Amino acid sequence: MVTIKDVAKAANVAPSTVSRVIANNPRISEKTKRRVKEVMEELGYYPNLQARSLAAKSTQTIGVIMPNSAYHAFRNPFFPEVLRGISMNAHDSRYGIYLSTGSTEEEIHEEVLSMVNGRRVDGIVMLYSRVNDRTMQYLAEIDFPFTVVGRPSTYEERITYVDNDNIFITNQVTKYLIDLGHKNIAFVGGNLDFVVAHDRLNGYRMALTEAGLPVNEAYLVHERFVNENGRDAIQSLINLEVRPTAFVTQDDLMAYEIISHLDALNIRVPEDISIISFNNLSLSEHSKPPLTSVDIGTFQLGQVATQCLIEKIEHQDTLPKRITIPTKLIERKSCAPKS
C-alpha cells in the first residue's frame, strides 16, 4: 500500500509538503503541487480525505443554504446555475457540498444550527438575503465562516457578500424603457421579504423620479399576487384607466408567465406592451418573443461566493468584503418604442 512517505520520497519533498498539497495549501508553489500530483498519479496514491479531515478537525464540506427546499428551488433555473458555480470552485479546492432541505424559515434556521453545532460543515454559502434574517444574524454573531449571494439587510459591514448592483441595474433598465418613449411602466414580481426585491424596486422608483415621471402605486404588483392568481393580477393592470405600456419584471420566469397571460388577453408583446427582465435564462433566447433580459452573471455569483468562503475558512483573519458582479443587458425582441 502506497503511503504519503512513498510519495514524498519519489517527489523529493517532505511528507508534510505532500499533506499540504493534498490540502491545497496556497503557500505551496504550483510547480511543487504539479510534481507531487504527478507522483501521486504514477504511484496510484489516493488520499483518505475523511481521515485527513478528522485529523485536521475539518469536514472539507461547505453548507449551501437555499431560501426553500431543493425541490422548490430547483424549479427556478437560477439555483442550478449558481450551484454549478459553487460546485466547480468547491471541487477545485477539494470541498464537498451539503445542501439544505428546509422548506420554511424555521426549518432552515434549525438546519443551520445543526450544521454548525454538529460540525458538519466548515462554512456556509447563503443563496439569498432575507430582510432581518435571523439565520444570517446568528452566523454573524458567532463569527462562523459564511458568505452571502445578495446584499445583507443587517451587519453589512461585517459580512462578506457577492451581489449585483441591483439598484443601479434596475434604474438603467427602467431608463431603457423611458428612452423608448414609455411613461407608464409597471413593476411586476418581487418578494419584499428579500433584499433584492427592495433594491430593484428602489432602482425602478429612482429612474421614474429622475425622469420627472410619477410613481403610480397601482403599477406595483408583487410576487404573492402573481403566484396566487397571475391572470387576475395582470388583468387588474390592463383594466386601469391608464394602463401600463411596459413592464419591468423580477425575473425571466415571471416574464414568461406574464407573456402567457397577455397572450390569452389578446395583448401582443412588444407591439402593445414591452417587457424587460432579469437573469437571462437560456430559454429566454427561444421564448416568443425572445426576451430582453439582464445577464446577472449567475454562475459567477456562485463561484466567487465559494471562493470567498474558502478563503475565510483557510485564513480566519480575512477581512469582510463586498464583491459586485457585473451585469449586461441582452437586447432581444420583447421591447419596442412606444407608438
From TrEMBL:
Pfam families documented for this protein: LacI, Peripla_BP_3
The entry's keywords: DNA-binding, Transcription, Transcription regulation
Domain of life where this protein originates: Bacteria
Domain HTH lacI-type: 2-56
UniProt-listed SMART domains: HTH_LACI (SM00354)
CDD domains: HTH_LacI, PBP1_MalR-like
Glycosyltransferase as UniProt keyword: no
Gene Ontology MF term list: DNA-binding transcription factor activity; transcription cis-regulatory region binding
Entry-linked PANTHER family: HTH-TYPE TRANSCRIPTIONAL REGULATOR GALS, LACI-RELATED TRANSCRIPTIONAL REPRESSOR
Name of this protein: LacI family DNA-binding transcriptional regulator
